[in-house]
Amino acid sequence: MKVSQLITLFACCLLSAALALLAQQTFFAPAVSAPDSSSLSVAERNDVARRSFAKGLPADFTTSAKAVTPAVVFLRAYPSSVSRFEPGPRGSITGSGVIIDERGLIATNRHVIEDANRIRIVLGDKREYDATLIGEDESTDLALLKIKPEGKLPYLTFGDSDSLQVGEWVLAVGNPFSLNSTVTAGIVSGKGRSIDVLEPEDRIESFIQTDAAVNPGNSGGALVNTSGDLIGINTAILSSSGRHQGFAFAIPGNLAQRVLEDLRDFGEVRRAVLGAYIQGVNAAQAKSLGLKAARGVLITGLRDNSPALRGGLKVDDVITAINGTAINSASEFQEQLSRYRPGDRIRVNYVRNGRALSLKVLLRDKNNNPRKLVGREEVQD
Question: Mind listing the domains of the chain with CATH numbers?
Answer without folding.
Answer: 62-146 (2.40.10.10), 161-266 (2.40.10.10), 276-362 (2.30.42.10)
